[in-house]
Every structure is written in C-alpha cells, then in structure tokens.
Amino acid sequence: MGQRRGYHRQWGPREPGPPRPREWEVLLLLRQGLEDEEIARRLGITASTVRGHIYRLRDRLGANTRAELLRRIPWEQCPPGLQPPEAGDQGHL
After folding, report:
1. Is the dihedral of CA 31, 38, 21, 60 positive or negative?
2. Which residues of 1-11 are buried (b: 16+ CB within 10 A; e: fewer)?
C-alpha cells in the first residue's frame, strides 16, 4: 500500500499551510517558466532539491500537475520581499 496523501512517514501529517520562504522562491521562478535546472542554478541548490520542493507543495495542496499547483498557490500571501517587480517597475528600484 502506498503512502497516504499529506502524510510523511517520519514526521506525520503535513500541514497544508502557505509555502515556506524557499518554496516561494522556487514557485516564483517556476511561474516564470524556468526549468528545474535553471531554478536550481539561480538558487544555488540542486535540481533534485527543486523537484523535492515542487513535489511536497503538490502533495500539500493536492495538485496533480505543476500547472494545477501554480493555480492553487495563494499568490496574495507571497512575502513582499520575494515578489518580482511589476512590469514597468524594473527601472524604479
């Protein structure tokens, strides 16, 4: 029998809360259409770690695909320091 959704064999039930800071960083780059390897390079982590973040987020939010994951993310909860500048704001740092 497989592992239950939302349950980690070592730490128990997973809480469905908002993404953690590193997960937000991965999500923002994923939202830009970047591949795992490019996200990993930009964040200084491995592509395997990127895939792990995405897998855990999909599991917590009950998303079957990456596209569905991006639709389910509560973007309004993204910490302001992590949000990319709006189009046109890039020159006004």
Report:
1. positive
2. eeeeeeeeeee
Q: What is the DSSP letter of 73?
A: S
- Residue 15 scores a pLDDT above 60: yes
Q: What is the tens place of the pLDDT at every residue in 24-77?
A: 999 999 999 999 999 999 999 999 999 999 999 999 888 999 999 999 998 998
30 HSE (CA, 13 A, CB side): 23
Q: Look up the pTM and report it.
A: 0.73
What ranges do the domains of the chain cover? 16-77
Task: Just give the CATH number of 16-77.
Answer: 1.10.10.10
Nearest to 63 by CA among 22, 29, 30, 25: 30
Contact yes or no for 23/39 (Cβ under 8 A): no
- Which one, of 47, 58, 59, lies nearest residue 5 by Cα? 59
